[in-house]
Amino acid sequence: MNFTNAKDVISYLYSLPKLHPKGDLSYVKRALDVLDNPQNKVKTIHVTGTNGKGSTSYYISNLLRKAGQKTGLFVSPYVFEFNERIQLNGKNISNSDLVKVANQVEKAITKIKRNDPDFSLVTFEYETVMAFTFFAEQKCDYAVIEVGIGGEHDKTNVITPEVSVITTVGLDHEKIIGPTIQDIAHEKSGIIKSHRPVVGGNIPKTVLPIIEKKAAQEHAPFYLLGRNFIVSDDKRVVYKVKNKTLSFISHPKVESYDIAVAVQVFSLLHLPLSNALIEQAVNQTKIPGRYQLLKENPMIILDGAHNIQAVKNLLEFVHKQKKIRDGQVRVLITMMKDKDLEQVFSLFDKADRLLLTTISYPRVAKKADFPVAVQKKYPYEANWKKAFDELKDASEDNDILLVTGSFYLVSEILNMGEANASSGY
User: Fold this and answer.
1) Which of 20, 29, 176, 358 lies 20 to 30 A from 109 at CA?
2) What is the pLDDT of residue 16?
3) Architecture of domain 6-283
4) Could you state, in order of their start, the residue ranges of all structural domains in the chain?
5) Cα-atom radius of gyration of the chain, to the nearest Å?
6) b/e code 195-231 from CB counts within 10 Å (16+ = b)
7) Hey, what long-range contacts does 319-325 have (CB within 8 A, 24 or more apart)?
8) Which of 35, 12, 41, 11 is nearest to 110 (CA)?
9) In this structure, what are the phi and psi dihedrals at residue 27, rounded to the nearest 5 degrees?
10) 65 falls in which pLDDT band (50, 70, 90)?
11) Residue 20 — pLDDT band, cuts 50, 70, 90?
């Protein structure tokens, strides 16, 4: 097969299976091996976590770029376009480079198939191999690699990073890497490598020993938020470590954790950058679909929060804003049907006005997929655009309109053409 345009590449990727019958790394390793192991030709930062891994990856990437490093970034999901998944120096991979690198991967697969006709890559493996190949070809100084799901068995776990990062540990994807939070912690700690430092964010005390034990086994120095470095988030986000203090513009509490982790990771790389430029790099970071402010009056916030902890953190921020603005909270929400829907919906205040919706995506909940109690409590509008317009029209200037539950819904709203979307507070 020979790709001639980016649209065909993306369609092909989505046509591939999502999982192998056995979830090991042998497939991705074989493909990388034929391509001369591009993942070993670039210094990497490996980022996992139930929440915050995407934001943290963006912050680290921006810090590296500010320090003059040619920087690759591999993240998921995308918000505006597929090419966001693979970035170079803050710019999405071009369509021509996407086609070029896909053809290189396809050539490697064809070579393997000569001896093993049944060989194939699943979607995320293919994307991972493309990213590593592209970063090596571009001779990146660093590549920030966000895991897909988990850690130990994630298809990106074929690298020996300069620093491993575990932002948070909570309940999500329990059917794949759970079912318990302890199981999830074990899985995420699988990215810790021998004698390579690991930075931990807001890790629950119940699972901290699991990560500490893995770090000790690997002789990996462990730097923990709240122990080795601290952050406060009153009027500004303030990061402190030993004799160093940095101050950043105000962010939601959970984002301040991500900032602190990113700055700690960057400090371990010993790249020269003044405090003023570190602060500038963080303050200038734009993260699509995460605490993204679309409009001020009414305040329209887009956030792809899709698990219990992420929604809890988001609502803490939204309800704080509600008190300041003395307004009403309206929420447009859809979720994947395999999420813990009952628990997520229990997090909303009685006064919050929710409107359920859906989008055209295989795993997204339709009306019948929501718990019966949720169906009875909140109205449902199948047309997400109509639902968004309805809530927007009903909102006063001091109200808050939150769009959440899925990055796919956030993506639809943003791609609808709402202008001047900005990220930051």
Assistant:
1) 176
2) 93
3) 3-Layer(aba) Sandwich (3.40)
4) 6-283, 292-423
5) 21
6) ebbbbbbbbeeebbebbbebbeebebebbbbeeebeb
7) 319/349, 321/400, 322/400, 325/299, 325/398, 325/399, 325/400
8) 35
9) -65, -50
10) very high
11) confident
Where do we find the tokens 């001896």?
Answer: 115
Distance CA 312, CA 159 (A): 33
Cα-flanking dihedrals φ and ψ of residue 333, to 5°?
-140, 140
Residue 143 contacts residue 72 (beta carbons within 8 Å) = yes
292-423 is classed CATH 3.90.550.10: no
- Alpha-carbon torsion 279, 280, 281, 284, what sign? positive
Residue 163: how many CB atoms within 10 A of its CB? 25
Which two structure tokens, joined as six digits, stand for 265? Answer: 């990771």
In 230-353, which residue ranges form alpha helices assigned H by DSSP? 253-268, 275-283, 308-325, 341-345
Candidates 400, 405, 407, 416; CA nearest to 287 is 407
Percent of the chain predicted with pLDDT > 70: 95
Note whether 400 and 298 are within 8 A (CB).
yes
Q: Taking 70 as the threshold, does the pLDDT of residue 179 lie above it? A: no
- For residue 57, the model assigns a pLDDT of 97
pLDDT band at 80 (very low <50, low <70, confident <90, very high): confident
Q: Write out the two tokens for 141.
A: 């100084």
Which range is least confidently modeled, 57-66, 168-177, 282-291? 168-177
Answer yes or no: is pLDDT of 425 > 50.
no
Same fold, 6-283 and 292-423: no
User: Whole-angstrom Cα distance, residue 414 to residue 96?
Assistant: 25
